[in-house]
Amino acid sequence: MNPAPPKISSLNARFAAVLLAVTVAGIAAVIYFLNPSAHAFYPVCQFHRLTGLNCPGCGGTRAAYALLHGNFVTAFRDNALFVAGLPLVAARAGWLALNRWRGRSPGPFFPTRFLLPLLVVIGVFGVLRNLPAFAFLSP
Of 8, 24, 46, 78, which one has the greatest count of Cβ atoms within 10 A? Predict the structure, then answer.
């Protein structure tokens, strides 16, 4: 029998939330001010470099840059899966925050029952964006 997981104190949870918010804001600021297409310090996709194919994440940083500048069409063209997934992640985070605020157990951010469907969607997107008929999905 496994022991119960340790309880996270309210102070630790708040500190983690503030740290996460500051980190996300810092990353967003770097991406906002430094165009990924014009600066070489951003990581290069090793899968694309080795194979010449686009992985499911290719274009994600450029899509984030476009979203931060309000260019939704460009962002969607750079990485449709990233752009479509952001509202889902935000909705899930809001749902968990609302449950926590109401005093309910929020549960895991990403339930394991969603892992296989997510991997299938990511895999199908990765294959489709490399097919000529679906070239519009490539950055």
Answer: 78
Residue 67 lies in a domain: yes
Residue 1 belongs to a domain: no
**Domain encompassing residue 58:** 11-137
How many domains would you assign to the chain? 1
- CB-based contact 54:138 (threshold 8 Å): yes
Residue 6, in any domain of the structure: no
* Ordered mean pLDDT values, 10 residues apiece, the chain (139 residues): 63 84 95 94 92 94 96 96 94 85 81 91 96 91
The model's pTM is 0.82
